[in-house]
Amino acid sequence: MTLAAAVGTVAHATTTTLTTAAEARGFLSPTGVEIAFLLVGLVTFGAAVVTVTTRQLVHAALWLVVALGGLAVEYLLLTAEFIAWVQVLIYVGSVVVLLLFGLMLTRAPIGRSPDADSGNRRVALAVAVTAAVALVWVVVDAFRTTWIDLDGTPAGSTDVTGASLFQHWVLPFEALSVLLLAALVGAIVLSRRANTAAAAREAEARERGAGATHGTPHGTPHGAPAESAPEPASGPSPEPARAPTARRRDAEGNR
Amino acid sequence: MHLAYPVVLSALLFCTGLYGVLARRNAILVLMSVELMLNAVNLNLVAFDVWLSRTAEETLHSGQALALFTIAIAAAEIGIGLAIVLAVHRNRGTANIDKLRDTAEGPGPDAPDGPGGSGGPGGAASDSDDAPTTRAAVTKAEATA
Fold first, then answer.
1. Which of B29, B35, B130 best probes binding to A when mutated, by most A CB atoms within 10 angstroms?
2. Residue B36: closest C-alpha in chain A
3. Is the Cβ of B136 closer than 8 Å to some Cβ of chain A?
4. A75 neighbors A87 (Cβ within 8 angstroms)
5. Is residue A116 classed as helix, strand or coil in its secondary structure?
6. Closest alpha carbon to B35 in A146, A40, A18, A71
7. Contact B80 A123 (CB under 8 A)
8. Which residue of B lies nearest to A43 if distances are taken between CA atoms?
9. Could you state, in order of their start, the residue ranges of all structural domains in chain A?
10. Which is nearest to B113 in space by CA: B104, B101, B122, B125?
């Protein structure tokens, strides 16, 4: 816990508050760790608030990185080192990248989107503030006289975590691996095209529409069935001419 | 460290995520808020595990194990959730959860084909076909878009 130790020595020299039970220990001063925890917690909470209130969708994902990274620092301050690095690897490394991919694949607007928030914002704010007041009140009242002892060996080093995970938690661990496999297969199945026959038909229609509109650069819908008359292509051939308008309208609706 | 610090931070983060889930309109922003709520729970688990591992004589480190499990389940959840959002966006052309009202009852924009119904006159203005086939073609183009 070199981070907490350094912060503790720095902050212990400057503050003279909070006569806790563990003040006499000096080197790993709880006061310094508390102050560091408070500062990082303020940054984390502010980033989380910006994440849920900003109108720029990509900025929301980037502020989420700050919030999750701040939580990783909080885990380090709580001497749970393994969880902290797992948090950095999985959340900051993969989940946020996946969210950014999702934002790009759903054609999220880059700039400010005026209606990122729903119409029931005031109700949501009332519910959230009520829940926050109730939770903080109950929790502070319940754990008013409780201190965490952060001295000694780290509570969450890789040694300790691995030993407990593979001695007492082996069966849930293996079940979790099966769940991850199921999630992988499910994500692939969901993100494939549902009907390959429909996809092939659509590709064929698009190819035919491209061939039909090749002669006239801006093919009118009347010109397309005239060129490929004997086929049943009169049904699907207007699709490529109309699909861009539909997509543009959907993008406007999304925005 | 006083136990109230991580616990209060966890409560505040959870309520921030709650606000995001209730107030956001884009489905991916809702997923981000769900991630914030899961992280608040993780912070609680880790804080109580560190506290109890000092006070208890024999500990299973259940809090940290459960935090790891929560992280793994959150990764699976975000994969499945994004796949669902992408499938909905491919079929409906929007990730706006206020417009996905197929199973909704009561007042409101009650057309079962809401985007098609609202876009029907615009499509009819730019086309020479009659109205019902335009509606059908527009919905078909949306279904295959």
1. B29
2. A48
3. no
4. yes
5. coil
6. A71
7. no
8. B9
9. 2-156, 196-254
10. B101
The model carries a pTM of: 0.69
Please report which helix (H) or strand (E) contains residue A98, including its range: helix A96-105
What does each of the 255 residues of chain A score in pLDDT, given as a tens digit?
A: 455 555 445 444 444 334 444 444 433 445 788 899 999 999 999 999 999 999 888 899 999 999 999 999 999 999 999 999 999 999 988 999 999 998 888 877 777 777 777 778 899 999 999 999 999 999 999 988 888 888 877 888 888 888 889 998 999 999 999 999 999 999 989 888 766 656 666 667 777 766 554 444 443 444 344 444 344 434 444 444 444 444 444 444 443
CB contact under 8 A, B42 and A198: no
pLDDT the model gives residue B60: 81
| CATH 1.10.287.3510 is the classification of domain B4-92 | yes
Chain-chain contact of A75 with B17 (C-beta, under 8 angstroms): no
Give chain A positions within 8 Å (CB) of B32: 51-52, 60-61, 64, 99
ipTM: 0.72
SS3 A147: strand
Residue B96 to residues A95, A174, B21, B26, B114, Cα–Cα distance (Å): 21, 37, 13, 5, 12
Most B CBs within 10 A among A25, A179, A254, A255, hence the mutation to make, goes to A254
CATH 1.10.287.3510 domain residues, chain B: 4-92
Region A2-156: CATH code: 1.20.120.1200
Cα–Cα distance, B59 to B52 (Å, whole number): 8
Determine which of A94-103, B66-75, B108-117 has the lowest per-residue pLDDT on average: B108-117
CB-CB neighbors (< 8 A) of B73 in chain A: 176, 179
For chain A, say whether B104 makes contact (Cβ under 8 Å): no
